[in-house]
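Case study B.
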Amino acid sequence: MNEAAAILPPTVGWILLALFSALWVGLGFYWGRRNKSFEDHALAGRNIGLALGSATAAATWITSNTTMLAPQFALELGVWGMLAYTTASFGLFLFAPMAGRIRKLMPTGYTSGDFFRLRYGRTAWSIFMVYTLFYSLTWLVSMAMAGGILLNALSGIPYAWGMTVILGVCVAYTMRGGLAAVIGTDFIQSLIIIVGVVIVGFAVLSHVSVDEIHHNLEATRPALLNVLFPAAIMAIFNNLLFGLGEVFHNNVWWSRAFAFRDGVGGKAFALGGLIWFPIPVAAGFIALASGALNVPVPAADMVGPLVVADVLGEFGAIAIFIVVFCSLASSLDSLLAATSDLITEDIYRKLMRPDAPLETLKKVAQYVTLALGLFTWAVCLPRIGTLASVLFFAGPLVGSMIWPIVTGLYWRRASTVGAVGGMLLGAGVGLVCYFAIGWYVATLIATAVSMVWVLACAHFSKARFDWAKLSEAA
Amino acid sequence: MLEWQSDSPVSLEISTSPDFSKTKQLYAGSAHRYFLSGLANGDYYLRLKTLEGQTSTPLLVSVVHQSLNRALFLVAIGALVTLAVVITILRGARDE
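Model:
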């Protein structure tokens, strides 16, 4: 896409960008004014209630991929592909009971790194850190790139400028406001996204009927309706397990489990999953309508925004611009905050300065957020790689961590040998399958291999972990 | 992804026969790219047609999907692994 092909005039794009940038930065600074220590900054005082908790779970999970990759799944893999993307909600549903368990076992914990270090020791923690930092940085880069690409496609704002502004805004309010600002803005962003998607969905349906969409698909893309479309049915469990791996291991979700008020975590994550579930269905449906609407699709990951903009004109372009900006900001800020907390707590505090005062840790977290933003910006500037390939490369890594985490939380006999071997073997075999077969099997194979190893080790293990050791994190 | 160059609007047609005896129109308009997906196994011929009726040289596209048996095998593994995760979480800590 280029400026000439954009539907929204660049001036309108810049005005919207300026207005929402000012809103998020202003709110971030306002909500961050009471943060005094690292605990306030990283975990919002551990006092987040159900409404904010549910909204932040849903908003964080509505990423640029929900608006770009879910339609791409539908266009490439059909109805099953669309449903495969919705299985990512299972990550939130299944993390709901785990959040309560985490809060109970680690009442003073800060990060998912704390869990790995205390539960399995330094070796497992080191592997976890490599995997999670790779995944988190991949996610950050893919979203910042998506921001630049989408703003350019919708309004003609040059890629480099759009990416820089959206990243800069998120870094600014996350640095100043910490998790309180992230969760507060998430609440507003989730409301805007839901209202926007509902309006856009009904508007598209008023232009084309379900029958017309079905006839068009049957005539021009019949495999998208095939219930036995091989690549599509392969993607179902691969995507589901990718979602589980992402949520189960990443500090974005663990920091929320620690930050939510006692008893809130389970309900908040379950409600967040319910709120999130229809979003990729709506986004995928819009993509399936592209043929019936005679909308040319120049790139699969742009189909959703382009259909909306093409059908609804300037109003649609404005609506999708705002929805996309909110979905990007709600995930970028969460990831910046959670990753900076992970580096501050697990590397700076635990490895370098165990006696650092909480006020100093807050400052370190702010500088780490800035450094993450600069790193992401430098990687994104050349605009290399496609969204899907960048994202799915991390699939085997996160899939291999599912079983070490689940058994580590619930089974005293889960062992370090099981966790280390499960992560190394699972990720190794999964990556081989990624290149030998394709991304759509890599996470599934990684999780299955890891499961076999972890369960075998637990079966033969004589060790019985003392849960009290997990409460030493603070 | 199909890409072409044209100064005027075109229609993109697809057929299963090289002589285009039976065609379906995939797109008509001024775009220069089209994302092709969702075709069943087989050989397909694609061509561009201008408003004046001029046609481009046909392009042959062969579609070969993954093995269905392998896909179903992977679905079975996926279902088993997912079920095991769900059961482990819902059973909770039984050995405390």
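The mean pLDDT of chain B is 90. The remaining cases will be described in the next quarterly update.
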